[in-house]
Specification:
Helices cover 33% and strands 20% of the residues. It is of the alpha+beta class and 407 residues long. The longest helix has 21 residues. Bound molecules: zinc ion. Zinc ion binds next to helix 4.
């Protein structure tokens, strides 16, 4: 388990460069005689089927793979969904080890992608391995794992490649770090870009110009206020485990200016994370309206702030009464992962929205590791938790897909 995870981490599969990791998975699965389907889609194939896509890195050379056990067609199909890409490392000198080698230390594996989501993928592979040993002819239903590209640069795009290929599921487990607790909902989200427009003049006569960086300061303050104040429609407390109901995260601020000159254009780019019940167009209109109003209140003229939207993705919300949630809850409990009350929500966007919105596929987000560790310095995963998860996943598959009943 550890060896496979370290090898996967060593495949530096930053979005757009997923092929090495996917080929490694293919050869691992071939050796174990599992079903393997490996292919790539073009962007136009997806556009023809799904309509215009949000901005993303071209799909050229970014394969999708489906691995698993074909069933006998008499049970429910289960699909695990993981993403092969990882985020980059901005400063590897701040890590305690090489982020791209996979280091075992104190019962954990450290490396980029360890918990998001190569560790969870390894748990699913281990479940498949043990199922194929116990049920060499498969279960009643399919138990498959789709590993898709591009979750980190365009959420949902990769799962569309698998839907376009014709894969359907009666239940879906999206592999993300949830500390082995199944989560029945996930966030929608929108990528935004806010530009402030200044007037460049020499810094010594700054009173004659307008500084786009100073305007941006007011934009950032306003975003913080919007994040703090927007607490309406909390969806029956589904996201109550988290202190911020709708996080707004700026991940990039760029300015265009010459040395010693007032900045003429500054841009902030980030994500507005929503609840699965929020309507996209209404959320955009509200964001735009609130931001302009608050900036105006700080003395920024409306024509000095330009807002645009890019990538967007849908969340999901499987009803707590769905049989798939019940199976998940029982399987987790059998391994000592007790859940009192509601399964609750995953505090992020993920691939769950695609199958949920297209086919109402009952979906839970589930896997070892902690989201607090994802994208972080010294990203890690506990080996014991990964092994426990593999057992839970195998049990879930047996209970959901069913053994073949002899008649
Ligand atoms: Zn992830």
């Amino acid at each position: 388990m550890v060896e496979l995870l370290c090898n996967l981490i060593a495949q530096k599969s930053i979005s757009g460069h997923e092929h090495g990791a996917v080929e490694l998975l293919a050869s691992w699965a071939h050796t174990r005689k599992l079903f393997v389907d490996l292919w790539s889609n073009s962007d136009s194939e997806l556009t023809n089927q799904f309509g215009p896509l949000t901005p993303h890195i071209s799909l050229d050379g970014r394969p999708t793979i489906v691995i698993g056990l074909r069933g006998r067609g008499s049970g429910k199909n289960l699909m695990f969904n993981g993403h092969s890409d990882v985020v980059g490392v901005s400063d590897s000198s701040r890590w305690s080890c090489d982020p791209w080698s996979g280091v075992r230390r104190d019962g954990a594996v450290i490396g980029r992608g360890a918990c998001d989501c190569k560790g969870p993928i390894v748990s699913a592979l281990w479940a498949l391995k043990s199922l194929s040993a116990t049920f060499p002819d498969g279960l009643a239903g399919d138990v498959l794992l789709e590993v898709v590209p591009g979750e980190e640069d365009c959420v949902g795009l990769g799962t569309m490649t698998s839907v376009a290929r014709g894969y359907r599921a009666d239940g879906c487990i999206v592999l993300e770090p949830t500390r082995n607790r199944p989560r029945r909902a996930s966030r929608s989200g929108i990528r935004f870009e806010v530009a402030t427009i200044g007037e460049a003049v020499h810094g010594t006569v700054k009173w004659l110009g307008v500084d786009a960086i100073q305007l941006m300061r007011k934009v950032l303050d306003s975003l913080e206020e919007i994040e703090r104040d927007r607490t309406d429609d909390p969806m029956d407390g589904l996201f109550d485990d988290y202190p911020i109901l709708r996080p707004i995260t700026v991940d990039k601020v760029e300015s265009r200016s010459s040395q010693g000159t007032l900045c003429e254009r500054c841009v902030a780019i980030g994500y507005l994370e929503l609840l699965p019940g929020d309507k996209m167009e209404a959320a955009k209109a509200r964001f735009q309206d609130e931001l302009l109003k608050r900036c105006h209140g700080k003395g920024v003229a409306k024509n000095r702030v330009v807002i645009q939207f890019g990538e967007q993705y849908l969340g999901h919300c499987t009803p707590s009464s769905d049989p798939f949630c019940e199976v998940a809850r029982r399987s987790a409990a059998a391994s000592g992962v007790r859940i009192d009350g509601d399964l609750g929500a995953f505090n992020s966007g993920c691939e769950a929205g695609v199958r949920w919105s297209l086919h109402s596929t009952p979906t839970v987000v589930w896997g070892p590791g902690d989201l607090a560790n994802a994208h972080a310095i010294d990203e890690s995963i506990a080996i014991e938790e990964m092994a426990a998860c593999a057992e839970i996943f195998a049990r879930t598959a047996i209970e959901w897909s069913g053994r073949e009943v002899e008649t």
